[in-house]
Amino acid sequence: MYVSVGKLNEFPSGYVRGFKLNGEDVAVVNLDGAFFAFSNACTHENVDLAETDLDGTRLTCTFHGSVFDVTTGEAIVGPAYKPLAQYNVHIEGEEVLVGKD
Question: Are 48 and 67 contacting, i.e. CB atoms less than 8 angstroms apart?
Answer without folding.
Answer: no
